[in-house]
Amino acid sequence: MKLRIGFVAAVLAAPLVVSSTTSAAQPDRTPYYWQVPHADEHVLADLGFDVEHGDGGAVQVVGDELTAVRLRGLGYRPSKFDTVYKPVLPQARDVGVQSFYGGYHTSAEHAKHVTDVAAAYPALTQVYDIGDSWRKTQGQGGHDIRAICITKKQAGDCALSPNSAKPRFALIAQLHARELATGEVAWRWIDFLTKGYGSDAEVTSILDTTELWVVPIANPDGVDIVASGGNSPLMQRKNANNPTGCSGATGGVDLNRNSTFKWGKAGTSRCGETYQGTSAGSEPETRALEAWFKQLFPDQRGPGDKDPAPVTTKGVMITVHSYGNLIMPPWGWTWDANPNAAGLRALGQKMAAFNSYTVVAEGDTTGTTDDFTYGNLGIASYTFELGSGSGSCGGFFPQYSCVDSLFWPRNKGAFLTAAKAAKAPYAG
Ligand SMILES: [Zn+2]
């Protein structure tokens, strides 16, 4: 999530019951979303709190009872807003599938899925290793970051070259590891496209004319950390860099603050959740994604901040985050409207017709993925924020059943709209 947009909080909603093994002698380490009235989110972030959507003078902080104690010690009056963990429902598991928290797939399982799909649909797919995660660069295990191209392949299709015959729609997910529903939605998108070719007329038409690229897990090390908590997933947002010196699952660099376009005005506290890293593109995941975007899309926008991408621009990028029920086009680095604001808003509204999200520009953050892909390359770029802030399908850790009951059906049409717009996203 972007850690910035406010929404109306159902403050008095009863918290869900969670099982707890906490004894009276031990502080409750269960994480909650705390509502903190009369607080400035930037001040709290600078103090090292994990700050979430605020509204007016109130902000949300994620943390346990000790977090609340610390807030009270600073003069704040936090109140419990909702639980982070939802009841984990029993599920029918596929034999041999690695999953956690009711069915969410591990990084390894997502990698296997991409490979399996490619083996099953060789005429429709091409898989690439686009770079290494931080741990892999350090010889500490880790992962390849995988991209899959999906199209009805003709000669030259799915090449890592920006001058493709077909327009391209690139979707990435789970750059923030703890935003669990996002990778699952990418998984559903991959399956929907490959299984639908030849039977679903809309999918068939899109695959005949368009390349759909997907990176379902953009931060695989982070997802490993999250999954290590099992039915109590860890709250890791960032990558696995900087593993020492920060308490809890707070090491790492925020990969959605590390992109190279206008980098440098996000978090500078290395244990903070929005830590931007030591330099623009310092992280291997960022470098892998940016190199890959440059291989997919030519630079179609001038170098000036006010240079619009032309109406002939091809290409759409969506980076899937949670939460907030938002579709957010650039800019992040400034509140000023970008020079394609009208076109971006128009396409955003077409997508919002399917998921009912609010279309609103980002505003106050630097180093985001979509600022890079729009700012550097000119392609129509969006951050999706799946879901609301509370309830069984809300927050970072919605119940797994919400993927198929809510997130995927809500966003399928939005992704199809993006795919169909890839040939001319600013043409209206
Ligand atoms: Zn996010």
UniProtKB/TrEMBL annotation:
Keywords: Hydrolase, Metalloprotease, Protease, Signal, Zinc. The keyword Protease applies. Residues 103-422 form the Peptidase M14 domain. GO terms for biological process: proteolysis. Residues 1-24 form the signal peptide. Its cofactor is Zn(2+). One of its GO terms (molecular function) is metallocarboxypeptidase activity. The active site is at 385 (proton donor/acceptor). It holds the Pfam family Peptidase_M14. One of its GO terms (cellular component) is extracellular space. PANTHER family: PROTEASE FAMILY M14 CARBOXYPEPTIDASE A,B, SLL0236 PROTEIN. Belongs to the peptidase M14 family. This is Peptidase M14. It comes from Kibdelosporangium phytohabitans. The lineage of its organism: Bacteria, Bacillati, Actinomycetota, Actinomycetes, Pseudonocardiales.
